[in-house]
Each structure stands twice: as C-alpha cells, then as structure tokens.
Design a protein that fits this description.
Blueprint (H helix, E strand, L loop, with lengths): L4 E8 L2 E8 L4 E8 L3 H12 L5 E6 L1 H13 L3 E4 L2 H8 L2 H5 L4 H15 L10 H16 L13
Parallel strand pairs: 1-4, 4-5
Antiparallel strand pairs: 1-2, 2-3
C-alpha cells in the first residue's frame, strides 16, 4: 500500500502543474494539466485534491488561487499561497537565482532529480509548470517539517 498523500503543490494557471507528495516527503505523482477554461478548472479541483490531501500549496496566477483556496477552506485543509522567489531562494543557489532567464530550466533540473530520488520513472518530457510544482512541493515538505533539508541527491 503506498504512503498516504498529504501535500498537493499547484503551479497555478489554466495550464497548471500539479505535484502530489506523501507524508514521508516523497513525490507520488506529477503532471501538467490544461483546464482550458475556468468552468473546467472549477469542476476539476475536487477530483485533483481528492480525499487524502491535508495541505494545499499554490504559486502563480492569483486570479485562480481563490478557486483552489475556496475548495480547501470547505474541506478544512491547510492552504498556503507562496511567492515564486520564496521557494526558488530555498532551492536555488545564489548564481542560479541571479539567472532570471534560466529559472524554468533550473526548476526542470531539480524536478528531474526529485523524481529520481522519489524512485519514479524519468519523464521523457517535463513541462515547466509541472517542474515548478514539484520544486514548490519539495520546499513545502521541508517547511512543514516532514524533512529536515533537501535530499543531498538533489544537489549532486
């Protein structure tokens, strides 16, 4: 039986990145989803959040955050909106932070390492929104005390 999923990280947008983490800090699943419209997004949120999520962490389009936050509030979930610079400064080193045009490539690099560390199959392609959701989620796992620090394998 897989560990219970507890944390959902979402890079907000009508095309959203979604990363689901277990209570042991491992990534369980990730994807990029194109909702296409607000009405489809609203209908999809309950199914994406599911019944085992305890914490919802979002980053990105503030106009869409309220849809996720309203659902989280109805379910009494912990809900946090995180600014991009917060998780990036936690994960990226100083030179990576200075390379603004390369932030998405840097997220891809770390996301692939998190995927490998979590013992998931390597993706043939990884959209930047999914990569950013993976990185956002890993930082949230640490911020909630599920892990003391980022795994060393991520910084090889």
């Amino acid at each position: 039986m897989p560990p219970v999923a507890e944390l959902l990280a979402v890079d907000l947008g009508l095309r959203a990145g979604i990363a689901l983490y277990s209570g042991n800090g491992r990534l369980l699943t990730y994807r990029s989803t194109n909702f296409g419209s607000l009405s489809r997004l609203k209908r999809a949120v309950p199914g994406i959040v599911g019944s085992s999520v305890k914490i919802l962490v979002t980053e990105g389009d503030a106009r869409l955050a309220h849809i996720w936050e309203q659902y989280a509030s109805r379910r009494s979930l912990i809900c946090e909106r995180v600014a991009p610079h917060s998780w990036r400064s936690q994960m990226y080193n100083l030179s990576e932070m200075r390379q603004k045009g390369h932030w998405k490539e840097t997220a891809d690099k770390y996301a692939r390492r998190i995927i490998t560390w979590s013992k998931l199959s390597s993706p043939s392609s990884l959209r930047h929104d999914a990569a950013e959701a993976i990185c956002l989620g890993m930082c949230a796992v640490i911020n909630h005390g599920w892990m003391d620090q980022l795994p060393q394998d991520i910084y090889r």
